[in-house]
Every structure is written in C-alpha cells, then in structure tokens.
Design goal:
This protein is α+β, with helices and mostly antiparallel strands and 202 residues long. It has two helices and nine strands, in the order ββαββββαβββ. The strands form two sheets. Strands 3, 4, 5, 6, 7, 8 and 9 form a seven-stranded antiparallel beta sheet that branches. The radius of gyration is 18 Å and the shape is globular.
Length: 202
C-alpha cells in the first residue's frame, strides 16, 4: 500500500475580526489514489469546527461538491435565509445555491428573494457544470436564474442550455418558504482551498 502526503486545511481555533474562522494547513499521509476524497473530508471537518466555534452557518461548501466531477472549478456559494411575510429574517442562511464559473468580482448586491419549492430548474453551462434551483414555480425560478446568469463568466454561457424545468414529486416536499440572500462565498479553485477568496454579506 502506497502513501502520499497532501496538504489539508485545519481550523486554528480562532475567529478573525469579522467573526469568520481562521484556517491553517498541515501535511498528512493518505493512501495513494484517495487524495481528493481525503481532502474533502478534512475540508468538511475544518468548516464544521470553524462554524461551531465562530457561530456561523456550515452550508458554505455544498454537498454537490462531493458528487460532481467539477468540484475544482471556480464557484460562488450564495446562501439564503428564510423570511416572514413582512420581510423579517427568521432563520440562518442555510439554503445554498452554487454558481459555477462566477465572475471573480465581489457583487455589490444580493440575488433577488425567491420562494422555495419542488419546481426544479437545472441550467447546464458550456463545460457541463450546472446551476440547480428548487423554486415554488417556473416563473419564480426563472427570475432567479436570469439574475444568476448575469454573474456567470460570459464565455461559459456560449452553448449553455436549460436542461430541466419541471415539478419534481418526492416523498418529502421542499418547504414552500420565501428566502433572502444573506451572503456569498467565492472559491476560485473549488475545493482546493476551504477558505473563500472573498465573502460578501447583505
């Protein structure tokens, strides 16, 4: 059995002046051929520890990275929180939407509010990376998608297409709640670095 050393992120135990976790790196030996999966495990563990100590949401690295081949591609994770009928925030920003090949500039404004539900929209970019939205209905989801498309690097919209737009029937329906965009995190190298290049909050 062959082993190889890789550099993995670790939580330092401290939070910076903005309340975000401070990460470091350490070298660990893993079985050759398992580097990517082991790196993902360390990244997830560091995020969870950092979130617990610094009291932030842990949804900044999406579950989809664990199953998608494009997890090293640049991505922004937009995180949404539930709001009530008066627009008051009543929950943590725990509902993420991943936007691959996002332009590298930090956005000045948040994405629009939308209502979540079982209408699934999948938009496929030039390199087969995807934007997935679960909304209340098609109009609601397409409004959000059109806002997202303005933030994707234009060259990846060439040949992009709407792969799916339909109601998905599941055993447990997605809660029909209205959510507000509270933050965004940009990872220029995907899961290669657990610390985002920039963080925007609204």
């Amino acid at each position: 059995m062959n082993f190889i050393n890789i550099s993995v992120p670790t939580f330092s135990g401290n939070c910076d002046s903005s309340g975000n976790p401070v990460f470091g790196n350490q070298s660990v030996a893993v079985i050759a051929g398992t580097e990517s999966s082991e790196l993902l495990k360390f990244q997830e563990l560091a995020q969870i520890k950092g979130a617990a100590v610094c009291n932030i949401d842990v949804a900044g690295i999406p579950d989809s990275w664990l199953i998608r081949p494009e997890y090293h591609r640049p991505q922004v994770i937009y995180q949404f929180a539930e709001i009530d009928s008066s627009g008051n925030i009543i929950g943590a920003p725990k509902y993420p939407i991943t936007v691959p090949h996002h332009i590298s500039t930090k956005p000045d404004d948040a994405l629009p509010n939308y209502k979540r539900g079982n209408w699934e929209i999948i938009y496929v970019l030039k390199d087969n990376s995807k934007v997935t939205i679960h909304s209340f209905d098609e109009d609601n989801g397409m409004t959000l998608l059109n806002a997202i498309k303005l933030r994707i690097t234009p060259s990846y919209l060439d040949g992009a297409y709407l792969s799916k737009s339909c109601l998905v029937v599941t055993d447990t329906d997605i809660a029909q709640i209205t959510v507000k965009n509270r933050m965004a995190k940009y990872y220029s190298t995907g899961t290669k670095n657990a610390l985002p290049d920039w963080l925007a909050k609204w």
